[in-house]
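The material for today's practical consists of a large collection of protein records. There is nothing in a record beyond a sequence line and a structure line. Backbone structure tokens are a discrete shorthand for how the chain folds in space. Nothing more is needed to start thinking about how sequence determines fold. As an example, a complete record with its sequence and its structure tokens follows.
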Amino acid sequence: MIIGYTTGVYDLFHIGHLNLLRNAKSMCDKLIVGVTTDELVSYKAKKAVIPFTERMEIIRSIRYVDAVIPQETMNKFEAWEKLKFDIMFVGDDWYKENKWEKMEAGFKDVGVKIVYFPYTKGTSSTLINEVLINLRKG
């Protein structure tokens, strides 16, 4: 059985999120999704619009997702020690980033493959949030 893992805030759920989850599930037998907690989002100097428990429920309801867990730390290797996933899926906006190159090298030693999916053009939670802010300004 191939276990896949991916993480995200999944705030203002959009088609890019769905594309990533659909593509990830097509490459594994079991897809586990880590949803970033509100505390971890704030650590990154951001604030989610949709509360953590609601974001968890949205992701849990997606048919491509087999299990949902809280992502309480950015340490992906710690998650691997618990979940023993075979593939990790991330957006290609992280490809060749120094942090991910190091992570990829570490995961290679334990046989985990990192798959970068193309970012869905024209949509993102950040973009949706900016549009909402501008609309509300009137």
